[in-house]
Amino acid sequence: MRTRALPLEVCGWTVAAGFPSPAADHTQKRIDLNDHLVQHPEATFLFRVKGDSMRGAGIYEGDVLVVDRAIEPRHQHIVLAVLQGEFTVKRLHRRGGVVKLLAENPLYPPRVIKPEEELLIWGVVTYNLHKLA
Q: Which of 28, 44, 72, 108 is the most buried (most CB within 10 A)?
């Protein structure tokens, strides 16, 4: 579902992680984040993360993931999967006929998908909206 555009100011310079620029009050143009975060509007959804299995990939509890259903899932993509009827976010491993869902936290073992198990790759995670403060 696409909501109304919310244009934000874009500064015309890169930002160093050191001292602030004296030109901070001079912006260049306005952008809509939808134009930068959403490639396929009708196939893009937001999901809030619960749990810590993907923290090694920088995905934390409470983060909001941008998930695109129009992207073909490939080996090493971070995906939103439905395994046995339950949603999970994991890294997709698909090699030599073996399919695994890999956590990015050593506390969680790899999940090898058995032929009798129902797995649906629902979409590919394209962005993580992570609050810093």
A: 44
21 is known as an active-site residue: no
Give the phi and the psi of residue 45 in degrees, each rounded to 5: -135, 160
- pLDDT tens for each residue of 78-95: 999 999 899 999 999 999
Annotation marks residue 90 as catalytic: yes
Q: What are phi and psi of 3, to 5 degrees?
A: -95, 180
Q: For residue 94, what is the enclosing H or E element?
A: strand 86-95
31-60 confidence digits (pLDDT tens): 788 888 889 989 999 999 999 999 999 999
Kind plus residue range of the DSSP H or E element containing 65: strand 64-68
Which residue among the candidates 21, 50, 90, 131 is catalytic per the annotation? 90
Q: Which of 129, 124, 127 is nearest to 43 (CA)?
A: 124
